[in-house]
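Hi U.,

Before I forget, here's the chain from the pilot set. I'm dumping it here mostly so it's searchable later in email.
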Amino acid sequence: MNTIPRLIGVIHLAALPGSPRYTGSLAAIVDSAAADAVALERAGFEAVIVENYGDVPFLPMRVEPATIACMTACALAVRSAAPRLRLGINVLRNDALAGLGIAAAAGAELVRVNVHSGARVTDQGIVQGEAHASLRSRRALGLEGTKLLCDIAVKHSAPIGDRALDEEARDVAERGMADAVLLTGTGTGRPVREGDLVGVIQAVSVPVLVASGSTPENMHLVRRAHGVIVGSWLRKSGRAGEPIDADRAKIYADAFLGVKA
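Structure:
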């Protein structure tokens, strides 16, 4: 399937082995990921992104081999539990090569990349894009059908220099060969600015997705874009990191599908 999905939910994995907050049960994390996937599938979501959200503080680039192995186990469990969902991977903070490796093992169709090209100042320091390496790795692995969903001005970061958002978007899409551009607010759960969204959509020819701060109440933002990646609102508290609440997932999907009808 070569199209970019429109309604994507995010599974926030608890801290994995080797990270500071790991509690000692990988099996419980795998089971929770599978349950989240079932909730999303039943709610009507089209795709899911599995990410190592609990692994704070994040490594800036390359993650440990144990993280890759454990995320692969979780991704395979998600694939088995909810086979109708298209599968995506996001290895935080910015390990696109690991994401592609997991995609190869688990049959994922999507890889999210927080900093694909250029560089950003983050709480992990300066994080640099590696579009050159990611595209070559995708080709070498025979994953041309796996789409790279690439953030611009990603949340929890700041630019190194003064640069227009539309120029950054154009470079990521054209020179970085991103399959879709993602726009976020300034932090997890914070909405995008409508003017920014309109400008980015006008600047690029690839799909643009709203990738943070979306709620049933601000669907007018999503209406302007190709689609949405939603995480925080799907939790009972509305905060990232908790299991997905099946009722809230259904409320959100119904609101989205109503917008798109």
